[in-house]
Amino acid sequence: MANTYSQINIHCVLAVKGKENVININFRDELHQYMFGVLKNDGVLPLVIGGWLDHVHIFLS
Question: The pTM is what?
Answer without folding.
Answer: 0.81
